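Technical annex, item 7. During the second reporting period the consortium partners agreed on a shared format for inverse folding records so that results from different sites could be compared directly. Each record opens with the tokenized structure and is followed by the designed sequence. A conforming record, contributed by the partner at site C, is shown below for reference.
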């Protein structure tokens, strides 16, 4: 089959690192309940949030990194490199899973707070530890806040054949993704969770953002250039963002919510995150188009020092994400031990961001140390004197 996808130009796209870093910071802050600082994150001002951004960029990056490898070195090499990444994600998840539940158990016993075990969905470990741990290894049992990484693992695990076909029929794959999305919503498809229920992030629905990110990277952005640059999209898109802001605020403040008819209010509240509501998808797509329009790849602001910590956290995304999930629990516990004042919330949140940034810079430095230093260039050989100069 003929290759019809348009591969992204070479070189690192700092926009991906910047927004992935922002997503990691926002996920950390959003996982801390009763924290005034998480009002700075996007989930409070529209339908989509950091999770949507994280999944979209994951799809974009996966195609950006592995598409050219698959074309240059064959499907087998590309697929095995993708599965190597899946294994790294799985190991990171298991490592985080074990540390997370051990920490929760330790805190519950040390501070005589058994309610925290139920709050973070780890009570099953007491009644049936072997089965619960086994289900955790199978990604079916997930404590609170450990839902994103299993979703990423599943989406990356099924991506090799999808990427092969997307390189040849990108629009067909995008349409198939839409069909699967609507079918899953219509028929209630989801993966089972343990001990009951289904996945918080329905992979049959959330695959849409992952595939959209891959499609966007493999020519979708170029195909959509006229739409992205359209004045009509700008006006309609900004109007929709304002509408999303109003409806989100209506869900947060009862007085505002009472201004709308009940049937209309309940169409958007509570926000259907599990099955990725269509209004949520549209909200994110508009943001992606507007960012693409106003923040080009060569935007000079990306070199600004103010964005350097976020970009660095985006470049070391896996490590920062895992540490962020763990720190969100620590931050939550520290707030429960303290007065929980606004000052303490700010200090705890800022301290967590500082730790995430330090982890990113350390990890970046550590990776450089694993590489052998460049060999010094040999000194140029001395030039022998010519016969004329000798005679002189």
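Designed sequence (site C submission):
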């Amino acid at each position: 089959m003929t290759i019809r996808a348009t591969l992204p130009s070479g070189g690192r796209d700092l926009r991906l690192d910047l927004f992935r870093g922002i997503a990691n910071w926002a996920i950390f802050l959003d996982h801390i309940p009763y924290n005034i600082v998480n009002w700075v994150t996007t989930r409070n001002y529209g339908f989509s949030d950091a999770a949507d951004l994280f999944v979209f960029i994951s799809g974009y990056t996966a195609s950006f990194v592995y598409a050219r490898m698959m074309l240059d070195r064959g499907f087998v090499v590309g697929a095995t490199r993708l599965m190597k990444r899946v294994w790294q994600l799985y190991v990171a998840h298991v490592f985080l899973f074990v540390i997370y539940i051990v920490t929760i158990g330790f805190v519950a016993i040390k501070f005589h707070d058994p309610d925290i075990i139920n709050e973070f969905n780890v009570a099953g470990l007491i009644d049936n530890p072997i089965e619960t741990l086994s289900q955790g290894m199978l990604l079916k049992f997930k404590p609170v806040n450990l839902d994103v990484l299993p979703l990423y693992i599943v989406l990356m695990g099924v991506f090799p054949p999808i990427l092969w076909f997307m390189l040849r029929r990108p629009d067909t794959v995008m349409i198939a993704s839409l069909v699967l999305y609507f079918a899953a919503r219509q028929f209630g498809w989801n993966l089972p969770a343990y001990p009951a229920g289904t996945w918080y992030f329905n992979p049959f629905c959330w695959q849409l953002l992952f595939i959209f990110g891959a499609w966007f990277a493999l020519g979708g952005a170029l195909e959509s250039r006229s739409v992205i640059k359209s004045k009509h999209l700008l006006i309609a898109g900004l109007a929709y963002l304002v509408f999303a802001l109003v409806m989100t605020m209506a869900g947060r403040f009862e007085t505002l919510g009472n201004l709308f008819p009940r049937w209309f209010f309940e169409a958007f509240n509570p926000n259907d995150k599990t099955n990725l509501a269509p209004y949520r998808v549209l909200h994110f797509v508009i943001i992606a188009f507007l960012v693409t329009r106003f923040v080009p790849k060569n935007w000079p602001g990306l070199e600004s020092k103010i964005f350097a910590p976020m970009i660095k956290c985006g470049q070391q995304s896996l490590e920062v994400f895992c540490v962020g999930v763990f720190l969100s629990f620590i931050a939550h516990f520290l707030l429960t031990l303290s007065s929980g004042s606004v000052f303490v919330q700010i200090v705890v949140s800022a301290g967590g961001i500082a730790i995430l940034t330090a982890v990113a810079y350390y990890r970046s430095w550590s990776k450089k140390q694993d590489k052998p230093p460049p060999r010094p260039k040999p000194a140029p050989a001395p030039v022998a004197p010519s016969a004329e100069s000798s005679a002189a």
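The two ends are 73 Å apart (CA to CA). The chain has three domains: 17-43+299-365, 61-217, 224-295. All partners now use this format for quarterly exchanges.
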